[in-house]
């Protein structure tokens, strides 16, 4: 399978913004093993701004654009250094691709992105993709990596999109407010009722919430791609998801006519 895996900031880092070393090492190990098994892996990684916050010893995530850009520039270097080191330990080569909304919207630039992505997969490299936050001011304000991951899945004609975050999946209500909320294991269609279940909570270091994840699900499923939202606390959950087991919330792909 061709699998796009998006890892959120809250999965990669501690609340301090510093790297969760044990978890990231395990994530890279599991993704390497899935690659060894014959799957093509594309990683969409959050964490550049969050890690920059930690590296620059900022107390909170910045709200002004210049400081966000500065944090992204520092954090992206650290993030890629870590991925290169950890994946190299398992004999896998990584490649960095930074894109903006304009790269997707412009037909020629989007085609160039696709050509590069496909060639990297042919060369058995593991593409690691993020928004180019250091220059794309509009994307920093309105962008999110859940949507980016869905766009990447669509562009690469992936079979499966996995969003790893600090939540178990889609609940009927906010489980923090209602302990009786029920986890939905499968969603056949994204209806207005499903959309109404979403809240607007975000983490201190991240930008996404359940609303962005449902938006990603709409993009993915309409293009024939299944999507799973799952908790990334235990990276080995990726094995179960790829094997089709009942983990998190699985959004079924819309069958093409």
Number of continuous helical runs:
11
The fraction of residues in strands falls at 15-25%
Strand order in space, largest sheet: 3-4-2-1-5-7-8-6
Could you report the average pLDDT, rounded to the nearest whole number? 87
Tally of DSSP β-strands = 8
- Cα distance spanning the termini: 22 Å
Shape designation: globular
Low-confidence stretches: 200-208
Helix content: 40-55%
How would you describe this protein?
The chain is α/β, with parallel strands linked by helices and 257 residues long. It is built from 11 helices and 8 strands. It has helices spanning 9-12, 21-36, 48-55, 65-88, 101-105, 107-122, 137-142, 145-155, 192-196, 210-222, 237-242; strands at 2-7, 40-45, 94-99, 126-131, 160-165, 186-187, 226-231, 249-251. An 8-stranded mixed β-sheet has the order 3-4-2-1-5-7-8-6, sandwiched between helices. Helix 3 crosses helix 4 (65-88). It is globular. The relative contact order is 0.17. Residues 200-208 have low confidence and may be disordered.
Quick description:
This protein is an alpha/beta fold. The protein has eleven helices and eight strands.
Keywords for this structure?
8-stranded mixed β-sheet; 44% helix; 257 residues; 16% strand; alpha/beta; 8 strands
List the helices and strands and how they pair.
Blueprint lengths: L1 E6 L1 H4 L8 H16 L3 E6 L2 H8 L9 H24 L5 E6 L1 H5 L1 H16 L3 E6 L5 H6 L2 H11 L4 E6 L20 E2 L4 H5 L13 H13 L3 E6 L5 H6 L6 E3 L6
């Amino acid at each position: 399978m061709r699998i796009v895996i998006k890892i959120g900031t809250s999965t990669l880092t501690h609340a301090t913004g510093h790297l969760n070393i044990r978890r990231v090492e395990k994530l890279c190990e599991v993704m390497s093993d899935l690659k060894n098994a014959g799957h093509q892996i594309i990683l969409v990684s959050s964490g550049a701004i969050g890690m920059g916050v930690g590296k620059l010893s900022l107390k909170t995530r910045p709200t002004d654009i210049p400081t966000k850009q500065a944090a992204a520039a520092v954090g992206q270097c650290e993030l890629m250094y870590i991925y290169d080191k950890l994946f190299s330990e398992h004999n896998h080569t990584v490649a960095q691709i930074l894109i903006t909304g304009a790269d997707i919207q412009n037909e020629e630039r989007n085609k160039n992105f696709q050509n590069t992505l496909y060639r990297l997969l042919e060369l058995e490299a593991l593409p690691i993709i993020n928004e180019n936050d250091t220059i794309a001011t509009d994307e920093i304000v309105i962008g999110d990596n859940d949507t980016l991951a869905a766009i990447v899945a669509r562009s690469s004609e992936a079979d499966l999109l996995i969003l790893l975050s600090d939540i178990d999946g889609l609940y009927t209500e906010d489980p923090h407010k209602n302990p009786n909320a029920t986890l939905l294991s499968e969603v056949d269609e994204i209806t207005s009722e499903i959309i109404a279940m979403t809240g607007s909570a975000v983490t201190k270091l991240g930008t996404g919430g359940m609303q962005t994840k449902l938006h990603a699900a709409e993009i993915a499923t309409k293009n024939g791609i299944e999507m799973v939202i799952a908790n990334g606390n235990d990276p080995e959950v990726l094995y179960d998801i790829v094997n089709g087991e009942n983990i998190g919330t699985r959004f079924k792909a819309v069958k093409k006519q």
